[in-house]
Design a protein that fits this description.
The protein has helices at 34-37, 45-67, 86-103, 112-118, 163-173, 180-190, 211-223, 227-253, 268-281, 297-310, and strands at residues 2-7, 12-19, 24-32, 74-82, 107-111, 131-136, 141-148, 151-157, 257-261, 284-286. The protein has 332 residues and is α/β, with parallel strands linked by helices. Bound molecules: 5'-O-[(R)-(carboxyoxy)(hydroxy)phosphoryl]adenosine and zinc ion. The site of 5'-O-[(R)-(carboxyoxy)(hydroxy)phosphoryl]adenosine (KG4) has 20 residues, from helix 5 and helix 6.
């Protein structure tokens, strides 16, 4: 069964073709808009929407070409409908719904965070429930206990900025460019000096906070510390902090299976720390392959197909809408 996955929730126009029957990703095209947003040091929703409008059709056509299929072979369309920048989501969502409607095939609306949660399993054969999920992205930092494809209990989340957002804002303060995560990570990897001790925010349980770290960085910038030292110290503190919260979640729940996903799961120091944790605590930690860390259509197609099967192959109604935010645990 050929499945299309579409994601336009932020600044990546992404379309993938997934063969649900064989479990193979046939193509996964991502068109990034970094240069359009770079002058602003962050994503501008209206610019994102206009860029998606320009990119949607060429990206879709390339996804079909690379997968070597025609539009007639598509049997299911899966599209992100929440959360994210609403003007941006609407471009992909309307395109996907229109495609399904025109071809008279089912469509499934997918929650972007849920799609991240299952991204480490894309090439894995088996998903064993329940597990702890840590999503670390530009818009979210959430710890859940995931019991099913659509059943999650949030056990902790950031009370202010998302971790990826903190990376981007710190990079902006240091005038390093956008998006900040990969640039700071690169600096961290080649940095050999001493780290500055930054305060770790005190938040109850496994919830987190990143805005205080940002303020601490601003002070260091004002005091004139070298950029590399500030960037590397920030990455070390932010990642140690989030890994500390994950350890606490493992201790408190006693769970041994963990999924870590989202844009920041590409971070080299985070991956190193997760490896250590896996060995020391005898837990199983799954992270996505690099191409599935940041926003991509493959994770949407993958989860959409699983939910479609679970829902006895019934598509969503075409009256379904897109939303800027819907909590994954169903609790507002
Ligand atoms: O999951 P994602 O593509 O989009 C959202 O759903 O938000 O995450 C994007 C975020 C950005 O903040 C970016 O700076 C961060 O992921 N990021 C990284 C790395 N690569 C991307 N952060 C830290 N280290 C990286 N290597
Ligand atoms: Zn994302």
């Amino acid at each position: 069964m050929k499945v299309i996955g579409i994601d336009t929730s932020c600044d990546d126009t992404s379309v993938a073709v997934y063969n649900g029957t064989t479990g193979e990703i046939l193509s996964n095209i991502i068109s990034s808009q970094y240069s359009a947003h770079k002058p602003y040091g962050g994503v501008v929703p209206e610019i994102a929407a206009r860029e998606h409008l320009n990119n949607m059709e060429p990206v879709f056509n390339k996804a079909l070409r690379d997968a070597n299929i025609t539009v007639e072979e598509i049997e299911l369309v899966c599209v992100t409908n929440t959360p994210g920048l609403l003007p941006a989501i609407l471009v992909g969502f309307t395109f996907g719904k229109g495609l399904a409607f025109a071809k008279y095939i089912p469509f499934k609306a997918i929650h972007h965070i849920e799609a991240h949660i299952f991204s480490p399993f894309i090439k894995e054969k088996e998903i064993k429930f329940p597990f702890i999920s840590l999503v670390v992205s530009g818009g979210h930092t959430i710890l859940t206990i995931t019991r099913n494809f659509t059943n999650h209990t949030i056990i902790g989340k950031t009370v202010d900025d998302a971790i990826g957002e903190a990376f981007d804002k710190v990079a902006k303060m240091l005038e390093l460019g956008y998006p900040g995560g990969p640039i700071i990570d690169e600096i961290f990897r080649s940095y050999k000096g001493e780290y500055i001790e930054l305060p770790k925010p005190q938040v109850k349980g496994v919830s987190m906070s990143f805005s205080g770290l940002k303020t601490a960085v601003r002070r260091l910038v004002e005091k004139g510390y070298p950029k590399e030292q500030i960037a590397a110290s920030f990455q070390k503190t932010a990642i140690d902090y989030v890994v500390g919260k994950l350890k606490k979640a493992i201790n408190e729940t006693g769970m041994k299976r963990i999924s870590v996903s989202g844009g920041v799961s590409a971070n080299s120091y985070l991956r190193e720390k997760l490896n250590e944790l896996q060995k020391n605590r005898k837990v199983e930690i799954l992270v996505p392959e690099m191409e599935f860390t940041s926003d991509n259509g493959a994770m949407v197609a993958f989860l959409g197909y699983k939910i479609f099967k679970m829902d006895e192959e019934i598509g969503d109604p075409f009256t379904l809408n897109a939303y800027s935010s819907v909590p994954i645990d169903g609790v507002v």
